[in-house]
Structure formats: structure tokens, C-alpha cells
Amino acid sequence: MTRRTLITGMGVIAPSGTGTDGFWRSALEGRGALGRLSRYPAGDYPLTVAGEVRDHDPAHAIDPRITVQTDRFTQFALAAADLALADARLDPATLPPYSFGAVTASAAGGVEFGQREIERLWSKGPAQVGPYQSIAWFYAASTGQLSIRHGLKGPCGVLVADESGGLDAIAHAARDIRYGTSAMLVGGAEAPFAPFSMACQYGHGLLSDATDPDRAYLPFSPRARGFVPAEGGAVLVVEEEGLRGAGPRPPVRVAGHGTTHTGALNHEQSAEGLAKAITAALDEAECPPGDIGVVYADGLAVPEADQAEADALRAVFGPALRTLPVTVPKAGYGRAYAGAAALDVVLATLTLRHGLIPPTPYADGTDLGIDLVTGAPRPTGTRAALVLARGLAGGNSALVLRTDGS
Predict the structure, then answer these.
(1) 119 falls in which pLDDT band (50, 70, 90)?
(2) What mean pLDDT, rounded, does the chain reach?
(3) Cα distance between residue 343 and residue 11, in whole Å
(4) Closest to 15 (Cα-Cα) out of 207, 179, 234
(5) Is 63 helix (H, G, I), strand (E, B) or coil?
(6) Comparing C-alpha atoms, which of 222, 236, 155, 237 is closest to residue 189?
(7) In this structure, is the dihedral angle defined by the CA atoms of residues 265, 267, 269 and 274, taken in order, positive or negative?
(8) 261, 280, 279: which is closest to 269 by C-alpha?
């Protein structure tokens, strides 16, 4: 019998809210959380609008001895994991230590910490560089700190990837459970807003140059002009079905995953690869396309990329795509790289539990032949959701979530 993976706890640190309740309410209301970039003086840089976490200081939730060792992205992951474990009502100490692991994804790593220490190196010399520079910048810092904090000795890993990495990490955790692990902490978190890190992004030309937050991130719109980057992310508790018996909430399981690679910034040619990833996820989930009742789209807000995503969906769903709800809630709070897909998985899980699809904020319609959810939440009775993510480096990932009876 195949061991199945359930999502039992979720923790969120996002520009639009901390914790699943606040994040969910904001998404249902279509509330915007984009604003002027303030993590560093942005006057000389082309990016002015960003999704920043403004109402939560992750350092307040962490021992000061750990704060000085870690970058903001790791602090987000630690705080989100605490929320996820509380949501799951799971104390890691109650499980055998080798049966509980962690896997996270990150695109930027500890760039704020790293830039600060490099500035000290160049301006004041090597004696002024702190001892934690060697670990705080590293992409695996979040996984390492999670394993130390919670005494996790099971499978641990990190995916150095952008948007698609958030889904690939969840699939990685599900495979670990399939092969014998009892539970995993999994997700993605980012804090990309350091000048050097963002300067590396300008060359690809995909960042929105808008100065009005209400017009900055418009996926699938005729007025799309690029994406708005964000910080934050989500950590989930996933565990073997039956580990602790039936819980009080409708169970949502990780049912299928598919991934392909079609080359960096190769948007026009990515439709086939994304369609292949979707088909692979549906096949693994033993889910016919007609069972999918909502798509959480990647929504890059670059015309060629949006067209390719619509074409991929059309290749899989055919004429049914015109009545299949598609949504991009991240348009309201920004695209948090590896954290973006983890946040979408949280929302998709809540959709399956509560029967509501959040709208795409700021949307004014689309001419791409998809049923984009706009304005207000849409009721749904679906028992299966599809979450999509595409990385700027060419990764395409799809994840199918299902509830009982599907």
C-alpha cells in the first residue's frame, strides 16, 4: 500500500498577513499589500514597488542568540514553522527523531546578511566580518536551523531554486514520507531585498517598472508589465496519513507532482513543458483533468509567459478551460520566489477545506481564454486543486492537491 501524505499544519509570513487566518481573510477580500520598497533606499534603482512584510518582525519570535546568526529569510522560515507546528498540534519531541525531517527552497539565500558583512569587509577589513557570515548567507541555513531548533534527525535538504522550487520541495517531502519518514517540515521563504540581490534581477527585464501599487502586478491582463517581487513565505507540516488518526479538519493530501525544464526566460517555448508537468502531476495523482476544480496559476504578468501558461492549460483541459476557475492571489502581495508557490499551496488547501476561491486582486479581465476569478471569492465544491509554478531559470512544476473522496 502506498503511504499517502497529508497537509496537517500551515504557517504563513506574508506581506498580506501573518498566520493562515489573516492571510486567508486578506486573500478572500482581494486586499492589496503592495507598496513602495523600503528595505533599502530605492531612489536610484528601477524597482519601486514591492511586497514587504511590514506588520511582523520575525526576530521577535526567535531567541536573540539565533537572530544574530541568521538572515531575515531564515527568520521567516523559523517563525512560519512554529506557526505550522502549532496549527498541526504536533510536538516534534513526540515522534522518534529520525522519523521527522525538513526540506526548504530558496532562490536568494541570506542576501541582506551577506551584503552587510561584505560591506564591512570592503570598508573596515576582514577583522570586522562576523563569524556567522559563513552560514547565514547559505541557502541551506533555513533547513539547518529548523533541524537544530526542533531536533529533527530525519531526511533534511534544500532546493536552490526559484518559484518552481517551492512545489518541488513539497514533492521532495512527500517522497520522503512515501519511503518511510513520518513527518516533514517543508516550504519556502525569501528576503530578497538587498541592493546587490535585486541588481542581479534587473537584467532579465521581468520586474514591473510601475510606481502605482494598484497597477504594478497584473497577471493575464492586457496591461501586464512584469511581476512585483516579495518577501516572506510559508512552511507546512506534512505527515503520513494515519500517523495520529483523523483530525478535526477535512484532510488535504499531496496527490501528484510533475516537473520539467524548458530553459531560462524561454517563455514562448515553455507551454509544452508546463503542459507535460501538469500531465505528469495528474497521472501521479490518478486524477482526470475534469476533476480539477481550480487552478492556482503561476501568473508571471509578462505577456509572452502568460500566453504560454494559458496555452499549456488549454493543451491539458481543452474547451473545459473556459469554465475552469483560474486565480492568482499573489497579485495582491507579490511574488516571493521560492516562497510564492508555498503560499499558493496554503491557499489551495484552504480552498479545498472551505469551498471558496480567492480572487485575483487588481484584475480587469483577460483576453487569453481563461476563466480568471476576479472581484469576489467564488464558491466551489471541488475536491481537487492544481497549483502551478515556473522559475525564471526555466523550471516548470505542477502539484495536485486532493481531499477525501477524490
Answers:
(1) confident
(2) 94
(3) 9
(4) 234
(5) coil
(6) 236
(7) positive
(8) 261
User: Beta partners for 258?
Assistant: 398
Architecture of domain 5-240: 3-Layer(aba) Sandwich (3.40)
| Residues constituting the chain | 406
Q: Residue 405: pLDDT above 80?
A: no
Per-domain boundaries in the chain: 5-240, 256-403
DSSP code per residue over 4-20? -EEEEEEEEEETTEEHH
Instruction: Please name the helix (run of DSSP H) or strand (run of DSSP E) that holds residue 176, with its range, or none.
Output: helix 163-178
Strand boundaries in 276-323, DSSP class E = 294-296
Sequence letter at residue 30:
G
d(CA 55, CA 343): 17
Q: What is the full DSSP assignment across 82-134?
A: HHHHHHHT--GGGS-GGGEEEEEEESS-SHHHHHHHHHHHHHH-GGGS-TTHH
The H or E element spanning position 389 is strand 384-390
Please classify residue 94 by burial: count the beta carbons closer than 10 Å to its beta carbon, then call 0-12 exposed, 13-18 middle and 19+ buried.
exposed
- Contact between 392 and 163 (Cβ < 8 Å): yes
pLDDT by residue (tens digit) across 3-54?
A: 899 999 999 999 999 999 999 999 999 999 999 999 998 888 889 999 999 9
Degrees, nearest 5: CA angle 262-322-401: 60
If we measure between CA atoms, which residue out of 395, 254, 372 comes closest to residue 313? Answer: 372
Please tell me if the domain spanning 5-240 has the same topology as the one spanning 256-403: yes
Closest by CA to 7, choosing from 171, 147, 160, 150, is 171
Sequence-ordered alpha helix ranges (H) in 230-286:
270-285
**Pairing of β 100-106 and β 5-14:** unpaired
At residue 49, the 3 state secondary structure works out as: strand
Distance CA 323, CA 281 (A): 21
Contact in structure between 377 and 28 (CB atoms under 8 Å) = yes
* Topology of domain 256-403, CATH: Peroxisomal Thiolase; Chain A, domain 1 (3.40.47)
Q: Which residues contact 153 (CB under 8 A, 6 or more apart)?
A: 97, 98, 100, 101, 147
